[in-house]
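Inputs:
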Amino acid sequence: MDGVHDLGGMDGFGKVKPEPEDKPPFSESWEGRVLAMTRALGKAGAWNIDVGRHGIERLPPHVYLAATYYQKWFLRNEKLCLEAGLVTAEELAAGHANTPAKPLPGNVVTPSDIAGTLVRGSFGRPALGPAKFDVGDRVLAKNIHPKSHTRLPRFVRGHVGTIERIQGCHVYPDATVATGEEDPQWLYTVVFDGRDLWGPESDPTLEVSIEAFEPYLEAA
Amino acid sequence: MQRRVRALETVLAEKGYIVSEALDRIVEAYESRVGPHIGAKVVARAWTDPAFKKELLADASKAVRALGIERQIGDHLIAVENTANTHNMIVCTLCSCYPWDLLGLPPTWYKSTAYRSRAVKEPRAVLADFNVTLPDDRRIRVWDSTAETRFMVIPLRPDGTAGWSEEQLTKLVTRDSMVGTGLPRQPGEIV
């Protein structure tokens, strides 16, 4: 979706504010709870990572921009739990459960087995066919505007870049959100010249790459 | 917010989807065990061991696993090397993808709208916010983490560190230098 989350190249957000390297990861204790809850719900199979990302993208734009990072995570968790019927609005208002749980496909994370929540999932999949592009090929990032989740950022759409690396076949986020299927696709690193993206006034030393799934690209 | 978080956690726990004590353990792990010290070890090894550096650049997940770091390292980790010609920077314009395995949770600035919007368009201005100035002719390569590949930067080894041990070198490696918004500390900056 052409959402507010797709920030690359926008102006007006001000300076970046560096912070000390030893700053603790959570400013308030509820932030840690939200992070841990998210990891545990992922392992329980409440939703996959792409549905989770899309949940944040679907927050209203004014909420997305005003909320802190972990506020966004919390609002997403609440929304997806309600949408999936894992909790009811009445239960959240009361702060206690009063309906039976729904079965989930994953595993409940226990205190003695949190290791799985600390390691990333694996997204590589066996290839279903040959890669369409080779290193060095010139490719056009398609001018597409899917209404659902996509990982093709707006700032490259309609621009020509070069295939630099082939990353193998990966779970296709657009499909997992739209249909629930993994529909693995070849993934490429595609590099663009800064002046192609941002015009002749751009920094001439700049190159920007994205990780692009094959359906995002066509031969240029 | 705290009240709403507690309500959601309580309801989820009462229904058996999560166990609150497990959340305690997860928080503790991210607060204490996972952090940029892991990435710093990897960089220091790459600075001192050319064979390791070659393996790291070829397949970073495999090379880091072979180091025997206590933490599990996920797939699709990619190490990119700064050189005299090229400076690398990592961003996620769409959300906040970051190499948690090696660097821990991302700092607030990495997740900010300012960084995510500007890094791909005016990286030198972003670097100026970090008090970093690069030569005008240095090529700047920005990697937007739009898939499940995860990137880390191997910064340039500071001059004046010939003969330093791997352990000494880790003290020069900062988190920001492994994201590409900073440079390693100089030998004179550490005791």
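Chain B has a mean pLDDT of 96. Flag for discussion at group meeting.
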